[in-house]
Design a protein that fits this description.
By secondary structure, this protein is of the alpha/beta class. Helices cover about 35% and strands about 25% of the residues. Helix 8 (about 230-235) runs parallel beside helix 9 (about 255-265), helix 9 runs parallel beside helix 11 and helix 12 packs parallel to helix 13 (about 365-390). The structure holds 5'-deoxyadenosine and iron/sulfur cluster (SF4).
Length: about 450
Amino acid sequence: MAEPARTPFPQTDGNGPRVYLHTYGCQMNVSDSQTIESMLADSGYRFSETAEEADVVLVNTCMIRETAEVRALGQLANLSALKKSNPTRVIGILGCVAQAKRKEILESHPYVDLVVGPDSYRRLPILLEERFISPPGSPGLLETTLMREELYDDIMPRHHGGVTAFVTIIRGCDKFCSFCVVPRTRGRERSRPLPSVLREVEHLVSQGVRDIMLLGQNVDSYRWEGRDFADCLAAVADLPGVVRVRYMTSHPTDISDKLLKTMGKHPKICPYLHLPVQAGNNRVLNEMNRPYTREHYLGIIERARKYVPDIALSTDIIVGFPTETEAEFEDTFNLMSEVRYDTAFMFKYSERPLTKASKQIDDIPDDVKVARLERLIKLQQKIARERNEAQVGRDTEILIEGLAPKDSNMWSGRTPDFRPVVMPQNGEQIGDLVPVRLDSLTGFTFHASKLF
Ligand code: 5AD
Ligand code: SF4
């Protein structure tokens, strides 16, 4: 039988192979996918809207929690069908699951052509090329070496339009929280040189971006030639054309008063802080290898509110960490009432491979975890509602991001503290900063009117 023909490679005539890239997980993965797209576009690839019409199907996976991994692995079944329907189609698994489960994926899913971890994306064009010239059915290729220095620093990520964009400033994590797989999949912490961060922001501004989200697993560890994260944040905010700067994620051990003071002083830095607490009990924090106390954390919150009045706060919390008692969970519950977050991301503990906590027995029964989670979610919903209601009547500014999803006669945008707002259109443009009064609230969305 004649071998099915593969798309010739490379092609730079605008007819190159079509790629479909599906991204799961956090903003870091979204940002990585934009870097991948940029590299592939430079190598002559085009992008397709659906997997069915693509010559290359790539899935960027996440495994931070078990549910994310199950979702990503569940995709593998669909990929098998895509391969069957077109055996020349190249199938690639990227991201954290690729890094941590590389052998298992290739062994148990023979239709997978490529398994490429987060620090090896630079090799993707070459690996794809090899795959295009090798006969269909050849054993899959594996590239998951953790590159200490990889920053993808010289690559301008592909921007998808719109006024907001992510910019990665630091990759990897050295914290080794005992529940977290990230340091094993994304390697050691490394900061990007400040000039290249600024270059990327300037490039985005020239494409119409106004709102920059600086990203890193732990942005507070940013260091480059004597500059720290507060310096980096201020330098980005100082760039002409930048209207707003936000960032995530911070760590209570590393966040500095200098950063909080910089936020308070600089009008373009959004009054928003995502500061994961994970637990409100000191013994559990110690077990989690989070080297701070509840008291230290509450001190940061107090200073954040002092230096940045009206700051919005968000957090991550895990319930049901191994050995967490009811009384210890109660400390987390009380901490939430004490801090009164605007938003919280709450999770049931799930055991992750390669982590320190995975050596402990996952001894909290699922129904107990669920009950704790439900209590927390209920409390947080009540607090968020109250905090939002307190905003009604307030005068603020919104950055117009686009048309309101439910009404194309309205704009949708956000306040500086990241609250979603809709307002009637009246000659404004996407990217404008508009002074408004928050008139009313429906669910979590404000209705606003222009002030002048
Ligand atoms: N189980 C549950 N939640 C987890 N997170 C990280 N690892 C786990 C795990 N094993 C949560 C933490 C982290 C957020 C991104 O995901 O709260 O801050
Ligand atoms: Fe994971 Fe902790 Fe690093 Fe965040 S700080 S990525 S939770 S190890």
